[in-house]
């Protein structure tokens, strides 16, 4: 291994002391497939003599089996670690490699070039200081080059070094290099890089990788490694406002209360006056603790624990700031969003947004436009598919502390998590807050929902009937409505007939429109429940996520999901409205059960099998459910929390 | 300040800041070659010297920030690991820390103590035992857990006890599968842990280099290498459904050298097996193995010999090769490590089967 420093052999202690002060750079490689990213990293490691003998022996063995370089060792095999990658000779996921020179330590993230793995490329790029963008000298700037440059710029990476690779295949022709250089700079003019460097290289042969090559004597700049060693990175601006996102409250006993977190920006000193957001409570820093050390000052990137002079209530998700520059809080934003999941983004659907230290539910209220990454044009879109990038507005269930991403890469970033699959489906960068939330101060109603319900001698309740078209939802809902009405309850039924023709007449039957349809119905049902009504909602509502979204709008105990379980064959056989026949004939598109999916409830509050239950019995079962949960009693007479019942 | 002291300050700063001398030369004198000229005996006017000194001080101040706070590479790695551990405790209901008694586990435990100080780390330690570790490891394990004030859970696969599984009788692959892979799954299921810290590093092995810091496992503890959750910035998604779990690797971005440097800097306790000592060994297939107890069958004509050896990694003693060494101090070990020409996992029997062997084991639930 290339720890060539003679100090190692002569004075190991002096060597260790000098090593402890090395600077540090995070780099990631990107570019189109087959531009040679893995080979370049393999070459950097190989030429820096950072490959152990046993690793090299394994590479030589593997090169014969699956290498793409004939007799020579295939250096890409040093980084392509997954079996599928080695078999296919491509990179699927980010690989992290580590190496150091006398001047610096490096972490290199090797990211995939294929379009379908763009999300992995963004993973590798999010923490980088410098992007190495490879371009095949024979092909020049291609779509994937533009895509990756755009994402690197979007992620706020300040510097890009463009390696025009495979120069050996164009005989180190200067005009080829210059043409690509001009082309890239013209394109990157619209991006946010502070600095662009272009270098002609051959990763395969090592030209201009670690040392200058004499084959391109017209090139006067540094080798790639030289550039990476020398480049100055404005990684931390210690002058930036102090931000400590509180990660964890440290409370071992009643005498100690510390707030732990990693400082996102700026510095803090003992005695500084601080403000906790969003509560706005103020105090002073009593102590800065890092294990057994008590620090006078701390800075960005240190993971510390603060204690304060006053007992103020601070919890995870809050942000401690200095009083001179408190962080903003908001619940509505405009953001850039990279979509990363096979299931497309659906505006209106509830997702979880996770910022550096908190998570809240929220939805994308509008997709303003999609960005065409090849020319940065804005394209109207109803959804974002995998790897697409758009500008969106977001609405969160509660206000969070934030900075714009352009001001702070830590406190301006968020990820989007799907509530059902728990997958990370998107990555976002906050542009700015929409101040609308400040203007809509909710009217503090003097007569509250309990009063309204109590007046009617019932508890506000939403009965949500879901099932295929023709399953019998409306028939059963109407029987329940009638029975309740006859017993003196105050009810209303929402169904396709009274919603589709008015409130939602602008919506069709695509997936996006179905989601919006259900969202609006959910909001109407919520208003009606606030009025104290028992609301019957009878809608196919095919997607689990939307039914969950409606459930989340309501109070915990007032929503009941009733699954009218009728097999498709029977519903189609009944075909009360003749719709199935038309769908089969292709006259109706996106018909649930035929060419559009129905996701049955996993745990409905009540499941009615209509093949063995008559409509009248079904209605009786629904009424039993309501009685057993005391929904038909005056709320002021029903004990909460099971007290005494 | 004279020209000589300016030159030595400049070289020192170049070393610390990772900038080349010629870059600094340009910044101080507007000429990349001036420093070379001065080294060769060139002279400066007093006024130029004064201005250069001022400029260098200014650069030093800028690099150190307003309060003179510099963070080294190790400080950054430490902070990142602490951040990861706190995030797990904040997001997960029932985490556990896998403790395998080696040097990486020692560093991980030290970082956990730092992350939650003055509270003790709010999770137990779990050692999945094979009954074939070095004797010294068991003593070290028990004393460290006690000092850290943490609960220590030791799990041995009952099937391994019932069938008396061992590497000599069942072969290394079966032994490892039953005691480690199956044993780990049993222990994680029994504890209903939704997150488990492991001390793996990305520089160890190629499939590890591909793994996320928060690595999702399904209810069968399987890793889906081709379908990992994107992981951006320092925002981690630890959400799982009941039965699923996260494996979390706080040392992902550490290298072997970083681990040694940190052990040296922080004076962290590690088992004595890492330091050289006269130990009874036999040589098999070119590798020395320590005869740690009488369960190791001797081949015809084979007798243990005393040699000065140490171990680069620790595991089951019959599967862990020793290297000959005279390094009896930590500095000596680090020195030899830096000069080594083979990787540390070479001594491990488990890795050499095939290139994708570790990936396969991980998919099946191995750590």
TrEMBL record, chain A:
CDD domains from the UniProt entry? APSK, CysN_ATPS, CysN_NodQ_II, CysN_NoDQ_III
- Enumerate the spans annotated as Tr-type G domain: 22-239
Q: In which pathway does it act?
A: Sulfur metabolism; hydrogen sulfide biosynthesis; sulfite from sulfate: step 1/3; Sulfur metabolism; hydrogen sulfide biosynthesis; sulfite from sulfate: step 2/3
The protein's UniProt keywords, in alphabetical order, are:
ATP-binding, GTP-binding, Kinase, Multifunctional enzyme, Nucleotide-binding, Nucleotidyltransferase, Phosphoprotein, Transferase
NCBIfam families the record matches = apsK, CysN, PRK03846.1, PRK05124.1, PRK05506.1, small_GTP
Quaternary structure, from the entry: Sulfate-activating enzymes, NodP and NodQ, may be physically associated. Heterodimer composed of CysD, the smaller subunit, and CysN.
What is the name of this protein?
Multifunctional fusion protein
Q: Which organism is it from?
A: Algimonas ampicilliniresistens
TrEMBL record, chain B:
Q: Name one GO molecular function term.
A: nucleotidyltransferase activity
State the EC number(s): 2.7.7.4
Residue spans of biased composition, Basic and acidic residues class: 358-367
Q: Does the keyword Cytoplasm apply?
A: no
What broad class of enzyme is this?
A: transferase
Q: In which pathway does it act?
A: Sulfur metabolism; hydrogen sulfide biosynthesis; sulfite from sulfate: step 1/3
What ranges does the record give for the region Disordered, renumbered to this chain?
A: 345-367
UniProt KW Nucleotide-binding keyword: yes
Reactions catalysed according to its record: sulfate + ATP + H(+) = adenosine 5'-phosphosulfate + diphosphate
Domain Phosphoadenosine phosphosulphate reductase, by residue range, is 94-321
Q: Which Pfam families match?
A: PAPS_reduct
Q: Which InterPro entries match?
A: PAPS_reduct_dom, Rossmann-like_a/b/a_fold, SO4_adenylTrfase_ssu, Sulfate_adenylyltrnsfr_sub2
Q: Tell me which UniProt keywords the record has, alphabetically.
A: ATP-binding, Nucleotide-binding, Nucleotidyltransferase, Transferase
Assembly and partners? Answer: Heterodimer composed of CysD, the smaller subunit, and CysN.
Family that this chain belongs to:
Belongs to the PAPS reductase family. CysD subfamily.
Q: Please give the function described in this protein's UniProt entry.
A: With CysN forms the ATP sulfurylase (ATPS) that catalyzes the adenylation of sulfate producing adenosine 5'-phosphosulfate (APS) and diphosphate, the first enzymatic step in sulfur assimilation pathway. APS synthesis involves the formation of a high-energy phosphoric-sulfuric acid anhydride bond driven by GTP hydrolysis by CysN coupled to ATP hydrolysis by CysD.
What protein am I looking at?
Answer: Sulfate adenylyltransferase subunit 2
Query: Where does this protein come from, organism-wise?
Result: Algimonas ampicilliniresistens
Report which gene this protein is encoded by: cysD
